[in-house]
Amino acid sequence: MSPTSAVHPVDLEPSLIAPNLYSSRRTGLRLDVAALCSVVVVLLYCIPAPLIVPQMTFAGRPALLLSLCLFAWWFVARLSPSLLLVGRQPLRWVTLFYLVSIMLSYVAGLVRGLPTLEANRQDFTVLLTFEFLGLVLIAADGLPNWARLRAVLRILVCSAAFMAVLGILQSVFAYDVTQWLVIPGLELKGALTDFQARGEGGRFRVASTTVHSIEFSTVLALVMPYAIHFARYAATKLARRFYGLLTFVIAGAVPMAISRTGILALGIAMAIMFVLAWNWRFRYNFLILACGLTGLLVVGRPGLLGTLKSMFLWADADPSIDGRTEDYDHVAAWFAQRPWLGRGPGTLIPDLYMILDNQWLLTLVTGGLVGVVAMAALHLTCLWLAWTGFRRSASDEDRHLCAALISTQILAILVALTFDSLSFTTFSFTLALLSGVCGAVWRLTHPARTVRTSTVRRLLE
Question: Is residue 427 within 8 Å of 128, Cβ to Cβ?
């Protein structure tokens, strides 16, 4: 096959041509990038966020530490002559720019002089950045083919459904079921959950295994398009029904968080898929099923939808909205002091200063204009990669998956206006994985075989 030939579905997996082809060359243990990314997802969703490795900060969550190991694996692959990734990958350059912006801001913070608490928070943020970028890069360069890519996304959907079930149980029984997920050997940093009162009639917000209800609802909104994807395109009828059930569970759990951001995020994701990826028949079916789910919530959780409705109708009277707008004067003052590189990553500590419920403004204050440009470049590059994969894809299934990746980036850009999204590790590392998948679909749909086949080798062959 010539270097400029069209995408071949079996570039990397001869066994897909026919059963048992090259079976003697296949390994029983498949410890590859897809397997370890799947482990990261399970650890991220199924272990409560406050559980960390003893004597560490929240960067010591098991999933995050594994992501740091993945960064080391990717770095070794880039340096080793036998493992060198020869194909192009735009995400490598934009993540380098993002990392450089963080480090320049870090130096700017040191130059201005930092109290111990802020200096420690800078170190924590830099460590978190390496963990974040490790997951982005290893997913972009390490997922070897469509089959393994879809395997990771199936684990993502199943793990999100598990988290959704826990949130539903919390809401229905007002009982924190996550206490049964405390693993011996891990340290509990803070409370497992906080049922925050919201609205009238004793309504309260739930967070499942995340640290906040907003994070819980937005993570489920991020995953929802992928649940729909497998409900449409799973290989068997039974599998499609199974993922259809998981889709209902995930969608039904979003209102349990009683979060405007979560409802808006779900609406944005579904609107993008509605316009970009679905035919009219599926659109009608989706609307019918959405009405059915709404009716089920009305019957099963009386008053819940009324609470959500009042949150939107009376948003101008909500003190949280006023608090967000009052932050603008403080942001203007901080920005005027250090416009280019900011105060230093992570130095706007809520206990010392304020909670800034806007990731874009938070990045502007702590990373300056350079940090905002780097963050925007990361989102826009992933968006372009997913769109390129969408245009190149020959099958409806692949186009639908790329549309889901497009919805992820647009959703992340918009919800960053409503809360400090990258401060919540379940959300930010879900975004990291899906951003890396954008790079993977760009690579797997590239016309040059050298790009399609450039990937990180397995740990065990």
Answer: no
| Helix 237-253 vs helix 213-233: crossing angle, to nearest 10 | 160
Note whether residue 24 is domain-resident.
no
Helices and strands (H and E) in the chain: how many: 15, 4
Q: Are 363 and 346 in contact (CB under 8 A)?
A: no
pTM for the structure as a whole: 0.91
**Count of the separate structural domains present in the chain:** 1
Domain that holds residue 425: 29-452
pLDDT greater than 70 at residue 460: no
DSSP code string of 316-370: GG-HHHHHHHHHHHHHHHHHHHSTTT-S-TT---TTTS-----HHHHHHHHHHHH
For range 235-240, the mean pLDDT: 96
How far apart are alpha carbons 49 and 220 in whole angstroms?
15
Domain for residue 12, yes or no? no
DSSP H or E segment with residue 188: strand 187-188
Burial of 202 (0-12, 13-18, 19+ CB in 10 A): exposed
pLDDT at 236: 96
Task: Enter the tokens of residue 381.
Answer: 């590059």
Q: CA-to-CA distance for 243 and 246, rounded, in angstroms?
A: 5
**Residue 459, pLDDT score:** 59
Rg (CA), the chain: 22
In whole angstroms, how far apart are CA 345 and each of 231, 256, 420?
A: 40, 33, 13
Which residues, 6+ apart, have CB-to-CB distance to 87 below 8 Å?
443, 446, 448, 450, 451, 452, 453, 454
Q: Report the alpha-carbon distance of residue 100 to residue 81 in Å, rounded.
A: 25
